[in-house]
Amino acid sequence: MKTFPEKIKEARCVLGVSQGELGEQVGVSKRSIAAYEMGEKFPRDKTIYRLAKALHVSIKYLKDEECENPTEDIEKDPFIEDAQDSYGTSGARDLERMLAENAALFAGGELSQEEKDSYFKALTRVYNESREIAREKFGRKKQ
Prior knowledge:
Elements: H1 4-15, H2 19-26, H3 30-38, H4 45-55, H5 59-63, H6 77-101, H7 113-138
Helix pairs in contact: 2-3, 4-6, 6-7
């Protein structure tokens, strides 16, 4: 099993980009990338999402040390990124957890990528609608 620092460095080297170039793509300093690769520092979730996108690997691969496939669950990443943009880190974590918990529905059968995408879109739509209803009902009231 590879650690987070090993995964970051290996993916960066496979792409042939420097620490500075990766930092520019992700929006962090070269020093931060070096610290991630040396295990001195661990990025926040929002940075992990940007790292995954820049390195062409899945969020799951970077966050789960037991995951050895760099593209495992990569089809979920755009939905998680959208939740991050709309609802922040807690929203992204909620959706990420919800998608992972529903993975058992696929056990024992093969779904096409199109069928999986349809499922992820529907689940994300329901999640977003629920968040908006909660925001309207429990959020700050406009004066």
